[in-house]
Design goal:
Blueprint: H1 8-25, E1 29-31, E2 41-44, E3 54-62, E4 67-70, H2 71-74, E5 81-86, E6 92-97, H3 98-109, H4 115-118, E7 127-130, H5 134-140, H6 147-155
Parallel strand pairs: 3-5
Antiparallel strand pairs: 1-2, 2-3, 4-7, 5-6
């Protein structure tokens, strides 16, 4: 029997569930906002962790690896975590703080010198979108969604306004 092709909504649901599983495995909690205002999830510390800490999470998913950053949508969002969930089985997960991690990748990849990053080039939407190169995949390795990585993101103080 041939498995039915999943539509984009089912792909996103499967990715979100996989991301939630990753967060819970890190001994953290997760909430889903009632309204979508640029955060798909909220990750927060457990009750016994002492000081309450929470961060918004924006999910980006694709069955084939695709790295995309829309600067207009996400740059101004305080403490935003960008979560990239890739693959048919959603087994590849990277979690990055928008600032400084996304900005670090932009510098290392040279995107920050391009018109696409600065002004959006011919699309008018500043940011970047690409299929990951070996160089980008190497730079993403430290951002794999491990327990330690999630904890480090939540323990990081929020950026100054």
């Amino acid at each position: 029997m041939i498995a039915p092709r999943m539509d984009t909504q089912l792909i996103e649901l499967a990715a979100r569930n996989r991301l939630v599983e990753s967060i819970i495995a890190a001994d953290l909690e997760v909430a889903m906002p009632v309204r979508d205002d640029g955060a798909d999830l909220i990750v927060y510390s457990r009750k016994g962790d002492g000081v309450f800490s929470a961060r918004p999470v924006q999910l980006k998913t694709a069955t084939r690896p695709r790295f995309a950053v829309d600067r207009n949508k996400y740059e101004a969002r305080q403490s935003l975590i960008m979560a990239y969930v890739w693959g048919e089985d959603r087994s590849t997960i990277y979690v990055l703080a928008y600032d400084p991690d996304i900005n670090y990748l932009a510098r290392e990849m040279g995107w920050d010198k391009t018109e696409s990053w600065k002004s959006g080039g011919r699309t008018g939407k500043p940011g970047w979108s690409c299929y990951p190169t070996p160089k980008l995949l190497g730079l993403l390795k430290p951002f794999q969604a491990t327990r330690a990585r999630w904890r480090a993101l939540l323990d990081r103080p929020p950026e100054a306004p």
